[in-house]
Amino acid sequence: EVQLVESGGGLVQAGGSLRLSCAASGFSFDDYAIGWFRQAPGKEREGVSCISIDTSTVYPVSVKDRFTITRNNAKMTVYLEMGSLKPEDTAVYYCAANPWGYCYDDFSGFLEVWGQGALVTVGS
């Protein structure tokens, strides 16, 4: 079955950087788009990055120019490099798989399969 395991979360100060990893298994990774989502307490889950099978990417305005998503198909792993972190970036970050293979601005099409998430805490 589809499995996704997030890692790399931690505590950083505002302005710092962090890299998250998403290890995938149980599906044809090369045919799926992979996205990162985050959820803060009391808030809706929101998409923060997506990478398509052709490596094109989608970012919302909130993280544009600060976050970078990449994929390594040989390792079946997706990374999220986060820089210039702000306290409002504090959340649990999850990755998800999209069988449509391409990313859309509304972050639609993802399977409802979630890992344990990675907690990112940004101090002020």
Provide a brief overview of the structure:
The protein is mainly beta and 124 residues long. It is 0% helix and 47% strand.
- Radius of gyration equals 13 Å
Spans with pLDDT under 50 lasting ≥5 residues?
Answer: none
Assembly type of the chains comes to single chain
What's the helical proportion of residues? under 10%
Return the string of H and E elements: EEEEEEEEEE
Shape estimate:
globular
Strand content: over 45%
Side by side, the strands of the main sheet go 2-10-9-4-5-6
Number of strands: 10
Briefly note the structural class of the backbone: mainly beta
Distance from first to last alpha carbon: 40 Å
**Main sheet attributes: strand count, strand direction, barrel closure:** 6 strands, mixed
Provide the residue-averaged pLDDT. Answer: 97
Count of alpha/pi helices: 0
